[in-house]
Amino acid sequence: MLIRGTGSGAGSVLFKLYVLAFFIFLAAPLLAAGMFAFNDSQFPSLPWQGFTLDWFFNDTEPKLGMFHDRRLLRGLNVSFTIALAVALLSVFVGTCNAFLFVRGRFPGKNFFYILMVLPLVIPGVILGISILALASNVANGVEEAYNLELEFLRPGLLLVILGQFSFITTITSLVITARLKKFDISLEEAAFNLGASRAGVLRTITLPFLRPAMIAAGIVAFLVSFENFNTTLFLVGSDAPLTITMYDRMVKVGSTPVLNAVSVFLMLGSGVLALISLLVQRDKSKS
Amino acid sequence: MGSDIRKLSLLLLFLPFSLWILLLIILPHAGMVVLSLQEKVAPRVYEFGFGNYVDFFMEPIYWNTLIRTGLMSLLVTFLALLIGFPVAYYIAKLAGNRTKGMLFMLCLIPLWVSDLIRAFGWILLLRESGIISSALMASGLIDTPIEFLYTDATVIMGLVYTVMLFMIVPLVSTLDGMDNAMIEAGYNLGGNGFTVLRRIIIPYAMPGIVSGCIVVFMMTAGSYLTPILMGGKNSSWFTEQIYDQFISRYNWESGAAFGFLLLAFTSIVVWIGLKLSGQTLSSTVAKS
User: Fold this and answer.
1) Is B17 close to A97, i.e. CB distance below 8 A?
2) Which one, A153, B203, B212, B231, has the greatest CB density within 10 A?
3) B47: phi then psi, degrees, rounded to nearest 5
């Protein structure tokens, strides 16, 4: 090791212990949320009553498993729809933004770049209320002027998708921009010299190069959308996504182990997605 | 001909960007400011005025909550930096190549689950019938269960936990770019560990530190779930006031004013932070 850490051997052991303690701190609440999914008890608390999978698969009250709980399943379905829409939209716009800021030359580029990053630091609650207020204002205005009810501008799926899209696009843009910057432009030039068309080059050379970043950005967008609460809270209509359904359950019914089961399910799901995004990126860096 | 196509494609690329920023960021926020300047004079009758802002400053509970939220967010930011910096340094500089990637991935694990589940986990650990209290009882250290939830310290710890990742990632990426020879040179010139840290490592990592602090501060001040779930009724977080005005009281004008005040307040704090540290937005968060 070239650099001295904290000098003495004892100091370096202490440093390692500190890092270890930090990771225990990171893992503790996740383990706590996970373990009670398998406890054969009505309440998510000690003592340990024995291992069970009832909170996943049991089909009768009072221990209704998550895969038989219709409200949770509906929430899961809504969340999935929203997350998929947000991921596709934000990867598309993010890719356009990457080309715009890496390849484009136009006045005020730095200013626009800061505008692009801004949504990431605006509190989610404020994004939610501002979009809610604007959409409602437009809907009210149209209703008064033309006696036309624009249902899609009222709280509901579309507003949730737009609200999440508004800041998730910043994330996808940054990820894809970083990748496009590493692109060797001479590859495109070579293809042009060999007589390829603009569209052909984009399709066969540039986009395949960007694909791992686009997939990774899409996965991050999907996860962030799935987990989002602050922005969604204000824009949600009658179809509540999973986080809102779970929050309602926690506040109104109190915590039951079925929520732990959902937590385990979500942790596994995001773990698999994170792994996929890692594999996709690794594959590409070798070739 | 070629330049026409270039201009056209630039315009086409600019279209999604401008629609996004204009329709979902600029117009809603402008609308929020306009809405906040609508004063209710009679049922369904509004006129232009600063009434909602006057109400805010006349009612101590409102501005106290905002200041409290700001101060606690600063404390959370500072603690996240203090706790996260050594870990980031370890990952970037001391860990071997293989452990490095693994530790970095481990840092990202909390990102895999939502705020809600993280807060839920903490509740199960800390509440009166929770794991820590039960474990202390079983070990005989305490006789009656202890409630760890619903205190400011718990809220701060929960928030530090939630935002930690956004502090560590920028720190690791700036420290990673630092040449080890710089640190070695510091030692060779007779500096001790503390001097090297203060004169070489921290100045070099400044863009990452400021970037992490900005994101963490804004996220903390704008957070809603963690203070509500871990702090309970007396968490007095400002976003709770906004939610109250919007959803419970259906007073959108005042809610919009509160939203604008939160945005203005946090932006001013970030601006002061940038001035004090001698950084700019484009050298930190918007680093291209």
Assistant:
1) yes
2) B212
3) -140, 160
Are A30 and B121 a contacting pair at CB < 8 A? Answer: yes
For chain A, give every domain's residue range: 54-286
> Which chain B residue shows the shortest CA-CA distance from A16?
B90
Give the count of beta carbons closer than 10 Å to the beta carbon of residue B153: 8
- Please list, in sequence order, all residues whose beta carbon lies within 8 angstroms of the beta carbon of residue A239, skipping any fewer than 6 positions away: A74, A78, A156, A157
pLDDT per position as a tens digit, B235-264? 788 998 898 888 888 888 889 999 999 999
Q: What is the pLDDT of residues B151-188, one digit of tens each?
A: 888 899 999 998 888 899 889 888 887 777 777 887 88
Interface test with A, best of B3, B4, B20 (most A CBs within 10 A): B20
CA distance B77 to B68: 14
Computed from CA positions of residues A210, A213, A216, A220, in that sequence, does the dihedral angle turn out positive or negative? negative
Q: What is the 3-state secondary structure (H, E, C) of B118-175?
A: HHHHHHHHHCCCCHHHHHHHHCCCCCCCCCCCCCHHHHHHHHHHHHHHHHHHHHHHHH
Is the per-residue pLDDT at B1 higher than 60?
A: no
Q: Domain B51-283 falls in which CATH fold?
A: MetI-like fold (1.10.3720)
- Cβ contacts (< 8 Å) between A271 and chain B: which residues? 112
Residue with tokens 């109104």: A252
CB A232 within 8 A of CB A128: yes
CA distances from B10 to A172, A198, A234, B5 (A): 20, 14, 35, 8
Residues of B in contact with A259 (CB under 8 A): 120
Choosing among 1.10.3720.10, 3.65.10.10, 3.20.20.70, 3.30.413.10, the CATH entry for A54-286 is 1.10.3720.10
Query: What does the pLDDT read at residue B288?
Result: 47
Burial A220-242 (b: 16+ CB within 10 A, else e): bbbbbbbbbbbbbbbbbeebbbb
What are the chain B neighbours of A131 within 8 Å (beta carbons)?
Answer: 24, 28
Structure pTM?
A: 0.87
Token digits of residue A99:
């080309």
